[in-house]
Write a structure and sequence with these properties.
This protein is an alpha+beta fold. Among the domains are: 88 residues, no CATH class; 108 residues, 2-Layer Sandwich (Beta-Lactamase), CATH 3.30.450; 61 residues, Beta-Lactamase (2-Layer Sandwich). 46% of the residues lie in helices and 23% in strands. It has 14 helices and 20 strands. The chain has a six-stranded antiparallel beta sheet with strand order 7-8-6-11-10-9, with helices on both faces. The chain has a five-stranded antiparallel beta sheet with strand order 2-1-5-4-3, sandwiched between helices. The radius of gyration is 46 Å and the shape is flat.
């Protein structure tokens, strides 16, 4: 690897750094104003969304709280009975303490009343100041509830009074409609909740056309809206500054006492989705100025100084980088050669093992055979994997029937999934070759290749073992002696069928646990029998003794 010309490279780097510095400074200055405006616009949009979420959360939580407080009350047997009897005093006796408790929790709650289809405001609990001049809009809401029997909520304007109402139908246990219960809050509750949640101050405005001539005041109007809420002294001063603009829009900016505010509108609607109120939120932007002129100059100065300091360091780094890269390159080349040689050896090594194993080994993705060792090809008389795959997709195509053997598909579950579901079980398959059926024990090992699941399948021919076991069982069951075998490590015993029959038991009445033998040994003989067993184990001598055992019929 040739050494780099560091002097020429240094000159190029210096030129590039100076050019980059000039471009970056120009770019910073050019986008600063745009970025500041974009930031303000983005924060305005974010704050608008926050205000909408705060209002939605407030209305939603208010609705849920009201339901939780009222549902249990209106579903009580006493309440329903008194409502059916039109017992005004009895209903008022039930509602009044609940209304007082709810008011203690919510200072903006000002109305709780029962409305009947034939008698609105049948029972009414409200603050004295809630005395609407015109209930025409509310009557529309009540009429809809009385007709459709579903709950309604929204803002209601009654004369110069604005409130938020929830009206819920009341049914008896037979689902017969009895009337409606109405809950009301003063409109200012939305301002209080938004301020608690997001910290934004707000003012409520009502449309001028919704007010009578005596209620209108040009002093507190903006566009076609009249100030409705009672502002603080500071908010009133800000409102007057806002009023001086005459016409305002979403995102409008106003200045007051060297503070800058952005204006956000939220329209509040009644149950018919008609705008009733406009809430104007004032967002103080004084603390959100991203950069000042001094901060911009400081940023540019620091930027230039940083590059000036870096120039000699870059030169030194280039030389060191060249030397280290050359050493690293040579080291990597040597490592790659070693890895390549090792990979070549391992591939040959494992292929020899794969080819030499006498058991059948198959690699599959669960559907199609990918590879197989020569033992499989020799057993099935195929010259190559391609020859096998020209006739079969999977070795499972050769599995024969039989309930005791693994099937390619059982109730929609593939043979791979059957093994994975019970990996510790002994799985066997039956495969025919040249008219002779062979029994194989089948095992599975899963791995991933390029993130795809793959499986190594090992089939061990246990045909002769199964035949020997069958002959052994035939020999055991054919003798007149009762045979038993004890696995000391697992403490499990094997009892022959004849052994069980000698004690009067069938094949499935005695298990393989040690207690099956000890519980049937005569208590007087058990101690010396155990001593004989212990001596036999200790001295490694044959065990032989005579003792009594309990018959099933005794």
């Amino acid at each position: 690897m040739d050494r780099l010309n560091t002097k020429s490279l240094f000159k190029k780097v210096v030129f590039i750094i100076i050019l980059t510095t000039f471009i970056c400074v120009t770019f910073i200055i050019a986008i600063w104003f745009y970025f500041q405006e974009s930031y303000i616009k983005e924060t305005n949009e974010t704050h608008s969304k926050q205000m909408l979420k705060a209002i939605d959360f407030t209305l939603g939580s208010t609705l849920e709280d009201a339901k939780s407080n009222i549902v249990g009350l209106i579903n009580s047997t006493v309440f329903i009975e008194r409502l059916k009897l039109r017992d005004r005093e009895g209903l008022e006796e039930i509602l009044k303490p609940n209304f007082e408790v709810m008011q203690q929790k919510d200072k903006f709650l000002n109305l709780l009343q029962i409305d009947l289809s034939e008698k609105p405001s049948f029972v009414s609990l409200q603050e004295p100041k809630v005395a609407p001049k015109n209930r025409a809009i509310n009557r529309v809401m009540l009429k809809e509830v009385h007709t459709l029997h579903h709950e309604i909520y929204g803002y209601v304007q009654e004369g110069n009074q604005i409130s938020y109402r929830i009206i819920m139908p009341i049914f008896d246990t037979q689902k017969e409609y009895l009337g409606a219960i109405e809950i009301g809050w003063s409109a200012d509750f939305i301002l209080d909740m938004v301020k608690q949640i997001s910290g934004f101050e707000g003012l409520i405005f009502i449309q001028n056309r919704a007010l009578s001539a005596s209620d209108k005041s040009q002093q507190y109007s903006i566009d076609d809206y009249q100030l409705y809420s009672q502002p603080t002294k500071e908010n009133l001063a800000i409102f007057k500054a806002l009023h001086s603009y005459g016409h305002i829009e979403e995102g409008s900016k106003i200045e007051y006492n060297e503070d800058k505010y952005s204006v956000h509108f939220v329209n509040l609607k009644n149950h018919s989705n008609q705008t009733v109120l406009r809430v104007v939120f004032l967002d103080n932007k004084s603390e959100h100025n991203l950069f000042s002129t001094y901060s911009l100059l400081l940023l540019v100065t620091l930027f230039i100084l940083t590059f000036a300091i870096l120039l000699p360091l870059i030169y030194r780094a280039i030389s060191k980088y060249q030397d280290s890269m050359r050493d690293l390159f040579n080291k990597k080349i040597n490592e790659m050669k070693l890895v390549k040689d090792e990979l070549k050896f391992n591939r040959k090594y494992f292929k020899n093992i794969f080819d030499a194993v006498p058991n059948i080994i198959v690699i599959t993705d669960g559907h199609t055979m990918v590879n197989a060792n020569p033992a499989m090809l020799d057993f099935l008389h195929y010259e190559s994997i391609e020859a096998f795959k020209s006739e079969h997709n999977c070795i499972c195509d050769l599995f024969l029937g039989g309930s005791e053997y693994l099937q390619p598909d059982k109730d929609g579950v593939s043979w791979i999934e059957q093994i994975k579901a019970d990996p510790l079980a002994h799985h066997e398959v039956l495969i025919s070759r040249d008219g002779v059926q062979h029994i194989f024990n089948i095992r599975l090992k899963s791995f991933k290749l390029d993130k795809n699941p793959m499986y190594i399948i090992v089939l061990t021919d246990i045909t002769e073992l199964e035949e020997s076991r069958a002959q052994f069982e035939l020999a055991i069951n054919g003798t007149n002696d009762g045979l038993w075998d004890w696995n000391i490590e697992s403490n499990q015993l094997f009892f022959s069928k004849k052994w069980k029959a000698m004690l009067g038991y069938s094949e499935d009445e005695i298990g393989n646990d040690f207690s099956e033998w000890s519980s049937r040994t005569h208590p007087d003989d058990l101690k010396f029998v155990n001593d004989a067993i212990r001596i036999s184990h200790k001295n490694d001598t044959p065990y032989k003794t005579t003792f009594r055992m309990k018959h099933n019929e005794t």
